[in-house]
Amino acid sequence: MERRIxxxxxxxxxxxxxxxxxxxxxMEGRNVIHAINQKIDPEAPFxxxxxxxxxxxxxxxxxxxxxxxxxxxxxxxxxxxxxxAHHALFDLSVIQRTLQAYHIESAVFPYICTLxxxxxxxxxxxxxxxxxxxxxxxxxxxxPHDPFNDLAACNAIYRxxxxxAETAFKPIEIAFVLPQNLKDSKEGASLVLLIDELxxxxxxxxxxxxxxxxxxxxxxxxxxxxxxxxxxxPKSPRLKPVTDHMRxxxxxxxxxxxxxxxxxxxxxxxxxxxxxxQPCSLTSYRGFLIGLISHPTVTENLLHNIRSWLEQYRLPYxxxxxxxxxxxxxxxxxxxxxxxxxKALKTAWLQELERVDxxxxxxxxxxxxxxx
Length: 372
Description:
48% of the residues lie in helices and 11% in strands. The chain has helices spanning 48-54, 67-74, 88-101, 114-121, 130-137, 147-163, 180-183, 186-206, 217-220, 240-252, 258-275, 282-294, 300-312, 327-333, 339-363; strands spanning 3-10, 21-28, 31-39, 82-85, 109-113, 175-177, 278-279, 313-314. Helix 5 (130-137) packs across helix 6, helix 12 (282-294) packs antiparallel against helix 15 and helix 13 crosses helix 14 (327-333). The chain is an alpha/beta fold. The model is unreliable at 165-172, 222-228 and 368-372 (pLDDT under 50). The chain has 3 domains: 3-177, Nucleotidyltransferase, domain 5; 180-276, no CATH class; 279-363, no CATH class. Strand 4 (82-85), helix 3 (88-101) and strand 5 form a beta-alpha-beta unit. The strands form 2 sheets. It has a 6-stranded mixed β-sheet.
């Protein structure tokens, strides 16, 4: 029986590399076999804006364990589990960064995100907060930001998606959060090479559409097939959760058709983005700022997209990443963005664009003065 872990974390400040509270439901089928709601001493300062959101402060965690002391209690529960959360990339990335901060071996987390799934199948919703999606499905959410209430709501949303045949969760919706040191290693590079070859194989196969036995199963055969020597799958134990899921998904979508090929390519491109922290040039960063400023209003969806973008890219050393940290409590509060806040954000982005333009001017030289 598949084990699922519903998770919600609270952080003490903008750094997102410490946890001050974590709630977990470990489920098998529809049964909760472990329910954990634990305050954590983050051994880091608390920001008053975060305390106002979740109510956890230094006094509340004075006699609580730090994360290194807490982790051994849940580590045995996560093997082979599928994680589920609303904006899972945030919760699981915080766990990864906290593990890294305490020099604990990081895990690979396969996950399903109810927020991302809602965006795909409920595009007409104005907002995609937990309360908004609960309202859409008629799910009661009596105490937002109460850990177990949020987990119960996320579980109810997950089951609502499952119950709709046309929007049922499929393995292709699974993504991964990889440890940062894995992304920057030879192991991560070997996974990207495999993904690139898979993408090319799908394109090459679909140039002559057919549905006979010469299909995707050939790729998974370790022997030669039709004169093709397939790439070796990475053998790193840390990559095993990823490669196991990849094999499962490829088998599930065999025989390969044009439709399943398109779905597989979309999934592989998403997985590739997860596997590497893409470098971002100063030119791209400037274009990103111009795009933000061009929006007539600052919406919740825009802020979510900003955070997703920041989590995918390594910004150039000149970029001011701290400029975007204040959006985090705005996302957590689930309220419309006030006019004065929108104005302040736009002003800050304009000032950052001016700063970047000055950097470009400083980088110019007689040799490359026309370049950007």
